[in-house]
Please model this.
Amino acid sequence: MKTQNIMIVGVGGQGSLLASKLLGRMLLEKGYDIKVSEVHGMSQRGGSVVTYVRFGDKVYSPVIDKGEADFIVSFELLEAARWTEFLKPGGRIVANTQRISPMPVIIGAAEYPQGLTEKMQVAGLDVDAFDALALAEQAGSAKAVNIVLMGYLSRYFEFTEQEWLDAIEKSVPAKFLELNKTAFQLGRNA
Model:
């Protein structure tokens, strides 16, 4: 199998690391060679967090270069726009439409860019943008955005729904299991 590349991007504290671990666990159990690499940019202060997930028959490097990502899964809309140059032709962006203002916006030195989804689409990118936060809240917790996004992403892979749910069971504490299963289903059906 040709190596597949998935970038998970967001802001510190959104759960992107759990999403990458969930994805990595499922892929490893399916027998793929997998490499996961995390890059934290002031993540504890709301800065960017990027995780590379690469899998296939044999993966030699954990890093995804510009123009190589099959998918960019974004927990925040500006982060989706920030990483578009990494998407390969024919790749897809799965983005939460939630807006989290970066520091320049918070202090009034800049404005949050408007029309980001439309700008990415006009640039010829395939973008699936939806309100994952609303679905996470419907599931029972705003913190479940990560699992909602994984549910949506799951539609693009041939793994069974049960394989995804098994990975969730092995990745989240038992007391949050039903909430996360619900979040996954809401994302998968979005």
